[in-house]
Amino acid sequence: MASHYEIMIIGAGPAGLSTASSIVRQDHKVLLFDSGSYRNAESKYMHTLPTWDHQDPLRFREAAMKDFDRYGSVSVEKKHVESLKKCDDGLFEAKAGENTWRAKKVVLATGVEDVFPEIPGYSDCWVSGIFHCLYCHGWEERGCESAGMLAEGDTGNVVVALHFARQGLRMAKQMTLYTNGNTQLAQDLTETLQAAPAPMTVNSKKIKKLVKAPERARITLEFDDGTSITESFLAHKPKTRLKGDLAEQLGCELSSAKLVSVRPPFNQTSVDGVFAAGDCASPMHTVTAALYSGTCAGGGAPLQIQAETYKQKALF
For the FAD/NAD(P)-binding domain, which residue ranges apply (predicted)? Predict the structure, then answer.
């Protein structure tokens, strides 16, 4: 037999927690699903969030959950939702194993997952030596002699590669752009730097393996030709994809970037009654952006329920 709630939130990262933090202020019965899997699980410090600078993201999640205690309207299920559908009666049904839950509204805060390039050792260096965001990471390495920028995937073009490399120069005196065997990109970068010089060099060698050095964020790049270089850190944003397929199960429209399309200001998707928040619905993958979008979705779902309760027209 299914348990009934007013709103189900799928995902307990910053976006899901922010969504619940808004909904509780309107006293709706909420179910928050926490799969225990987080994109920043390997990171021990979070930054750019006032009052939480350089603290463990785990502490932030625990404190946010504790805030719900005094309200008594938020239930948490530490389960991974496997299926999600809209039933003929208009309610939404979520399943995990043998358990079933139903609700009037759903907020997808499922996030995205990183797709690492096929370079041996890359995953071992993730976060500890490879930084995807030089606002989130990197300041602690400032003053270093040299750092690297991996120009591949989402960063594998001149404009984006130089964008990251310029940020790297705030921490390092010299940046090397590694194109991992892409000679055309290496030539384009070299020509751009000749026209607009900066403390940057280009290395087109094919990377054989990445090895995390024991000191700080240092990382060694081993090349196919037998040579190697050790950098103070490596900047690279890998490709991302939606985490799970719940949006597709519901039939939500996706954007050209393969994220869930939402309509401002309340982040409703193309499916009535379904809202989305955080990384799964925005290309701006930061904690502060996730918190903002969670507030938007957490405002929209209750407002829609309240209007429908009295058969009145909602604000949106």
Answer: 5-289
- Rounded to whole angstroms, the Cα distance separating 295 from 23 reads 9
Assign 75 a pLDDT band (cuts: 50, 70, 90): very high
Model pLDDT for residues 119-136, shown as the tens digit of each residue? 999 999 999 999 999 999
Q: Domains of the chain, with CATH numbers?
A: 3-113+239-310 (3.50.50.60), 117-235 (3.50.50.60)
Q: H/E element holding 209? A: strand 207-212
Cis check: omega of the bond before 265, within 30 degrees of 0: yes
**DSSP one-letter string for 214-248:** SSTT-EEEEETTS-EEEES-EE---EEEESSSHHH
Which letter, b or e, does each residue of 40-75 get, where b requires 16 or more Cβ atoms within 10 Å of its Cβ? beebeebbeeeebeeeebeebbeebbeebeeeebbe
Instruction: Find the helix packing angle between 183-195 and 158-168, rounded to 10°.
Output: 60
Res 39: pLDDT:
93
DSSP-derived 3-state class of residue 6: strand
What mean pLDDT comes out for the span 283-305? 97
Side-by-side strand order, sheet with 219-223: 207-212, 219-223, 228-231
**β-strand partners of 3:** 101
Buried b (16+ CB within 10 A) or exposed e, 153-189: bebbbeeebbebbebbbebbebbbbbbbebeebbebb
**SS3 of 49-102:** CCCCCCECHHHHHHHHHHHHHHCCCEEEECCCCCEEEECCCCCEEEEECCEEEE
